[in-house]
Amino acid sequence: MKSDIINEADVRMDKAIEAFRMELTRVRTGRATISLMDGVMVDYYGTSMPLAQVASVAAPESRLLTIQPWDANILGDIEKAILKSELGLNPNSDGKIIRVNIPPLTEERRRELVKLVKKMAEDSRVAVRNIRRDAIERLKAQKKNKEISEDDMFRLQDEAQKITDKHIKQIEEVVAEKEKEIMEF
Predict the structure, then answer these.
(1) What are the pLDDT digits (tens) for 110-160?
(2) Which of 9, 34, 140, 183 ranks highest by number of CB atoms within 10 Å?
(3) Pairing assessment for the beta strands 91-93 and 55-61 based on DSSP bridges
């Protein structure tokens, strides 16, 4: 018998890990990926919009991104948005298309990125543990209200710990994968 509280905690932990994975796509690895531009917001006639909604982004080569705006009048705005982003990239425009070269990362920059990824991972582990804590508090409340027995409460707490351990292991695997990707030349 799996409790609704445990099922809900499992789903919330899955969502926390998915959010962590999405956050990691914005960490530059020295390889061109279109997800690198996900956080870039462009001022489009007074409205801040994601780059993907005003242009098509492609990665024709491993170290090059191309950005083709649907409205040629916003080329300058897109260039400014890329320069303002914290990606450290320099866009080059030929009047129709923007090319963004992805320079190889220095050893020092790679180490900084690995530290950043580990900090992001720690934040995700804290989120997972907070979900476990909430579930355990709800289980204790159910025991106090005599909705479940003490034995059931302890069994469900063990189950909450098991799913927490499973999710923390997943975070570790994602971190190891991203660290490998960052450190390879």
Answers:
(1) 888 889 899 999 999 999 999 999 999 999 999 999 999 999 999 999 999
(2) 9
(3) unpaired
Residues ≥6 apart with Cβ < 8 Å to 174 = 17, 20, 21, 24, 121
Query: How far apart are alpha carbons 56 and 39 in whole angstroms?
Result: 15
Per the CB < 8 A criterion, the answer to whether 101 and 90 are in contact is yes
| Rounded Cα–Cα distance for residues 8 and 42 (Å) | 37
Q: pTM here?
A: 0.71
Provide the pairing of β-strand 91-93 with 64-69.
Answer: unpaired
| Residue 100 and residue 64 in contact, taking contact as beta carbons nearer than 8 Å | yes
**Cα maximum dimension of the chain:** 71
CA dihedral 25, 66, 73, 46 (to 10 degrees): 0
Q: Are 150 and 143 in contact (CB under 8 A)?
A: yes
Compute the CA torsion angle 155, 160, 165, 167 (nearest 10 deg): 150
Residue the block writes with tokens 């995700």? 124
